[in-house]
Protein 1
Amino acid sequence: VNEEYDDVEALVRAAKLTTTREFDARVLAEAGAPRARWSHAPRWAAGIAAAVALAGALTAAAAGWFDHRPVRPAVTSPAPGEPPTVELHSNRLDDASATRVPDPARTPIEGTRPAVAAGGTELEVEEEPEPTTIGTGIPSNVDARATVREAPIVARVRIHGVVKGGKEHHELLPQGTIEALYKGDAALVGRGVTIHRKRSDVRKSFLSWAREGEESLVSGAGTIVMPLMPTNVGIPEQGDLHLRIAFGERFSGTLVRSDLPVRPASSIEEEMVGMLRDDLVASLSATDAAVRRSSIEALRWWSGESFHPDVDELWGDELTARALLAAGRDDDPRVRLNAGWIVTPAAGEAGRELLQDLLFDSDPMNRQSAVTFLRNQGNSRFLDTIESVRDSKWDESLSGTSPLSAKLVRNHSDETLRNLKEHGQAAVRADIAWALGGTKPAPATSAALLAALDDPDFEVRRGAARSLGRLGGDGVTDRLDGIPNTEDPRVRVMAAWSQVRLGDKRGYAHLSRLIAGEDARAATQACTALGRIAKRDAVALLLQASEDPRPVVRGAAVLALAERAKKGDAPHREAVDALVVRLAHDDDDYVRAAARAAQLRRVGRPVAATSPEDREGLERLGYVGYVDDADSGTDDSDDE
Amino acid sequence: VTTDGPRRRNEQGDRLAELYRELKDELLTVAAHLTGSRASGEDLLQDVLVAFARRGAAARPPEGRDDARRYLVTSLVHRARDLARRRAPPANDETAIASATSDSADGDPIRRSSLNEEAGRVNALVLALPDEQRAVVTLHLHAGLAFREVADLLSISINTATSRYRYALLALKRQLAPRGVPK
């Protein structure tokens, strides 16, 4: 090969890109001097800013802790059902703020006490700010049962708000505090910052959010993860804790202008996250298994369930990586399992090894989780693992609560089909129904799945409908077509999608009816299913759905088109581009946010409503009945 | 809580700057080819370098230029994959790549201009390759990885890596032929 293409190789090698001076300055400022970072500042500004930052750090050190409490925005009281409007009033928005650069090594976690964090590091404590409830739109009370021994407890809170864009570009840093009450006393308190948004994402997305004078939804990004530290008020050994948001939602903002050496809010965010992470990593070596368990669970939330999972970030830090690998061999099965969940998505050698270990773990739940993990993988990164497991001694008996994974089982037995029909647990039947879609097509399999369409459990019926779409067989499309309108909409969506997948165009009519139907969730799921279909018929239906009176359906339609466009289908791309222009001026916040998400090809829906309890908000968006953003299940890596 | 002293930070900063100067063009090329555009490549490279610097503050960074390069290239691949999972590929900014290439600043201006025109064209062609092929080409030719390493990094077999490479070079050769690539 090399000899034949020597000349081409030489040309490609020579065609190297060169960095620009601005880029060099930016990278060196940011990477070379991580304590005084700023964005897009020219080199001379970087020099001046470094001096200013040093002076600021000295001033701050002399004056005690830098008060980095989040900026209190003025929040206008919203009308019922409307999200709050937030205007930024930040003391960081002027030149003077440039001198107020905190020393990250000494940045306290606001409002935490006592002073001892996990790992024995002493942190000084700031006075707690006065409790002030700002904003609405988040559930102010969350009942949760927590065992204090398993500290640090991690709470997750969704935030939501509207920001009015100004002439400047702001970066937003949603922050929140939370406290847990025990018998009326504050037993635990903590604060959190969002940890999911990378600097560049924030900047890019906010540029499009914050046009002058325009109100934009900034929710959807708002998972806050915060460890709660015990206070010195009565700490129960174990008991029901009542969690509440202590200070409501807040945003802090930082002006990002190239001529001002202002510290971006996101850098504080990253440092705070680093601190939280360090505490949690340190807790992984605690002698108390309960502490190790809660710490690894918190890390898992962070790495896997935050808005932008970034496992590689974990691996960038050798200490963390080492601690996680050790956790993968912990005595406690829950610690092993969670370590596996964090590490395996990285799909490196270590990830694969941990996954293999989990498949043969002594704990059946761990084995089952490894199977589930493999089942949910939509790509080929683990094909080697799957192949090796298929050839090993792993069999159905080694799985935990349910017998199969579509990707692990090449051939199934008669007993499997019998279990599909007769097994006492619906979850097992559902898993089999789902898994059979990955096996070789056979008349007996299709027949068993057709029979499973009459199973009393809707998940079994849904799994069967999906697998039939993959296997086909005699009479399958007619049977799917005959599913009555009284069937659960989720099953109907799946059946219609399978019909289309098998080339039966009658499926479109069903999907169209589901979109037009009263059940908004069924309509959104139908949109999502259409987004998985690379056909012009699907585009036409989605365009129709984009004119639905219910905002949530309009939003789902544009997001579904974006999903398809992401995969490179030209008709969808054209449709999205046209639609985005129209829906960017929609009357509804949610639809506008969805249009922007589609425009940015950031597929994933914005938060539709403030909380499931917010009935008015839900009704305004057009949700009827329940809210459940469960995966539509039609996300196949090998779809059309 | 970090306990780094200023001296260690300074040494790390110097070392990073030196490393950056040595590898920046190579890494930017790899990053741009992995992401499909110069702008995304710059973002990617910046993130990786910042993470690398932070890692240097927390633990011992890889020793030696080759180890550091391998580490950085690996990080680029992982992050690019992560990005691709999250969002759609950006529109190909072939012109941006082509024009950025012409910023190259050495040699006689006339010769440089003609060389850069060629380089820009080659870059545009590389950019037009399918993602999988482009990744193999850039990791082998720009990052200097052996096929075995490329295969490991991309979690593919070595046969797949070499065949993707062969298809890519074949396509490039065909595209370049009308302009008279030396036989």
Note: The radius of gyration of chain B is 18 Å.
Protein 2
Amino acid sequence: MEIKVRLLAGAKLELGRDQLVLQFPAGATRLDLERELARRGLDPASGDLVVLLNGRASRQWPEDRSLSPEDEVLVFNLMSGG
Amino acid sequence: MFQGGYMGKLLRVDMTSRSTSTEPINDEDYKNFLGGRGLGAVWYWREIAPEVEPLSPQNKIGFFTGPMTGAPLAATTKIQLTTKGPETGRYLCSNSSSFFGPRLKQAGFDALVIEGASRTWTALVIDGGRVEFLDDEAWAGLSSDEARKRLLEKLPGGKWATMTVGPAAENGVAFASVFVDEGRAFGRGGGGAVLGSKRIKAMAVRGEAEIPMADSEACREIAAAAREDLKTSRAKHRALGTSMLVEIINGLGCMPTRNFQKSWHPPEEVKGISAETLRKDYFVRNAACYRCPVGCGQSAKVKKGPFTGAASRPEYESIGMLGPSCGLNRMDAVIAADEACNKLGMDTITAGNLSAVAMELFERGLVTAKDNEGLEVRFGDGQALIGFLKMLAARRGLGAILADGVRGILARRPEWAPYLVHVKGLTFPAYDPRGFHGMGLAFATSARGACHNVGGYTVSGELLSDKYDRYALEGKGELVISLQDNRAYIDSLGICTVVRGAYGFGTSPPSETMLAVTGYDFGPRLMTIGQRISNLERAILVREGVSRADDVLPPRMSEPLPDGPAAGHSLSPEMLSTMLNDYYRLRGWSGEGIPTPAKLEALDLGFAA
């Protein structure tokens, strides 16, 4: 299963690209997604990094929530405004 | 009590009599209110009565530094403005970076209070302990940058810091800003109009006094550690500035678009105003405030096309409100509109909001070109936007009504209420609370009306914490209170919020920095001081007539968002009421949002009970 991850702002700057295409076996979960992102230097536990899964912070979904190719994933570093 | 951080004096200038005096500031005020916003709030309580009109000579305007302002640490740049603001008709606090705060302290003062009104246009010059007035009717009509240039030409060389106002302030525009040095401002609430009402076009300050530090060696060590931390922790801030929020907030479906009729653009459309585009096509250099190693300001210039030559430092809020809110996804037009606001001396947030209101009125056929001296102002038309900004500042056409801000508009055209997006008269910044409900509570309860800073920047908490979901109502009272109290003490320290992490200034701040600066262990007391300031500010608002009935969101928030990641979500009065109940209970306020005498006594605010 292919999951497209759109990188915004600081995350895009960090990896030098605006999208990741990740491959997962059927039945992969939200936790698998977060682990794979962490392996690529985008650790959701790193303070200001947000992983948005279908418009909600990924950690608001159950850990065992199955991924789907239709999932929309955004990753960005958060900061306050000016 | 204090061995450093404070100069111990307030400079008072009476513009009517042209007299000046210096007054000591007592240690108890520093201990209880810290400085900056806190000191401003207690001063306001004592000196500005509820019946005072914002643009009358009876109003006063104060500028307050904090103990860290000007200290030899990182980004010790902040100064607070406190006055009765014309945009809300109530208490206004506003902060700005740059060099004025540090220079005021080097002149020997922690605070500057201005009262009365001059008969002629003038500039106020503070050179160490000496105060001078540069009267000249030719000040009138100058843009804020022309006024700064003219002022510096009249002064001997040296390390001057300046404040200036533009034509909007001269015309009493309710959201006139104060331009600080070359690129920062007291943007919100109309502090510029108050200076204009006193016929002060410009101010300059310099001084040679040393700002005492309790432990200079410890300060040096803390400064070195902070600089090292900021190199990595704020590298993205330096590289992209706050404009990096454009893609993020749009990605959340919360970017105000066409006067909050929606809050999302397809990602490919928003690229035109993204941080990347700013960096790639318009960036000139990073701009830094006093002692700031981050330099998050992104100086930008338009190099080709219809807006060639326009230059500004566009921040996220300006991009959001002058861009998508006005239907614009072109960075060149946004830079030109931002520059126009700066020169005219208007808050980019409210100027953008009200321009979008005008556009919606045109779109709905509620006004025509005849109402606006022949100029049609349509969503997406950058040239028309800039033309309309000039009309706002000059009070021409529809600008004659909109220049008075939401309060003035509602007084003259109450039927336009559905299109005004504000709390207590202050227009929304570039976040749509339908997509993060805690921000709605923050806007509703902020001490100055809809504000993401004073109200509490809930976005991080609503996305990063396991405890909160952005659409949930539960827990938002606790979140907002914590953020408001934290921000209240940060605004009183004299440092920029961008660097606070380098000093550990969160909800459990350490002792070392404030011990090194002042010799007093403020650390464990800072959140209590923040809570005291929040409660005093509420007591001020209550004295000015505010209650639960004013802690409301505009009707547009009840309309479900039509598209994007937050599609279908709204924030109704009932939902806000649920969060308010929680918030008031945790604050120890009555169900009407009034701090109880017991709560005020517990915070040593018995005088406000």
Note: Chain B touches chain A at residues 236-237, 239-242, 244-245, 247-248, 251-253, 267, 275-276, 296, 315-318, 429-431, 452-453, 457, 459-460, 462-464, 466, 469-471, 497-498, 565-566 (CB under 8 Å).
